Amino acid sequence: MKFETLAIHKGNLITDKNKPVVQPITLSTTFEHGNEGGVLYTRANNPNRMALEELVSCLEKGVDAAAFSSGNAAGTAVYQALKPGSHIIAPDDMYHGLHNSMTILFAGIHEVSFVDMSDLEAVKKAIRSNTQLFWVETPSNPLLKITDIRAISELAKAQGAVLVCDNTFATPVFQNPLLLGADIVMHSSTKYFGGHSDILGGALVTKDSNEFWEKIRTVQKVGGAVPSPADCYWLTRSIRTLAYRMKGHAEHARILAEFLINHPKVERVFYPGLKNHKGHDIAAAQMSGFGGIVSFTVKGGAEEANQVVSKLELFANATSLGGVESLIERRAAVEGPDTKTPQNLLRVSVGLEHTDDLLEDLNQALG
Ligand SMILES: *Cc1c(COP(=O)(O)O)cnc(C)c1O
Q: What domains lie within the chain, and their CATH numbers?
């Protein structure tokens, strides 16, 4: 079956004699011993989490998935499952929350090298005898840099290391890293999976049920950073429309990027769908769509960029991404004083409003 059909029919575990069409929320934290579903206690398992995990695993072409209470909890579970003293190779423009997880929580436990993952030579040079994990995020945040997943997977295989790909920006609608050689896919479900800026969640999907995956399952169940049954329900519900939302986000992002490129107040536009984007060819080869995030630099500096944001009426000045409403933010202000992100860069999470209204608002704000 195709993606759209799977998204609607998978992960719907109906056991009620009344045959509801939609699986209800099972709020009970505990279940009678010896029940047919094998459910014991909600931290270890729950029918709504089982449904969500089945759905996400199926859409990412994996064999199993584990749902977490946030994307950061999902990523952190991977670092927790590594043997202490492991070396990790991660992107120099990695999502800052997971960068913090590695450098703050795992300082003194693992070693990390942050490199430009789109530069294969740099990645090769960073490999050490104890390299156990390659972390890829493509497209990346906020410059939408593209990493060749297949090429990195060759390096990981030769090293006997695990390759994890943060697929939050692309979603399985546009990219299936497991089919490109990744071992595990990570998601912040808070973004496009939820799609309405009202659920926090994360997920991991594996290509194989191996020892490393069993460790991750243990981290999930014993660590206990699990989503509530209601959050699992709302996520499952939202993922039903993921394919249609993503097509809309990507179409709107393309229209916005083309508008911005031609605007005299705009310096540069970053969108992997643009032919002049550095990673366009690799993106076109490994993705079936270019996603819904566009970044651009405004002529001038932080001040000029802030002015554009303050004049916008339809775009909320807020962090995060992936919701139906358009968001904009000056990333450098969010990332703090050490950031390498240009001060005049604005990142847009392009929403599903009509593009005529979005362009009109941008046009008046750019002046
Ligand atoms: C938001 C985000 C995360 C972290 O997810 P949370 O749900 O906020 O914990 C990780 N990676 C990427 C690419 C993200 O955008």
A: 3-239 (3.40.640.10), 244-366 (3.90.1150.10)
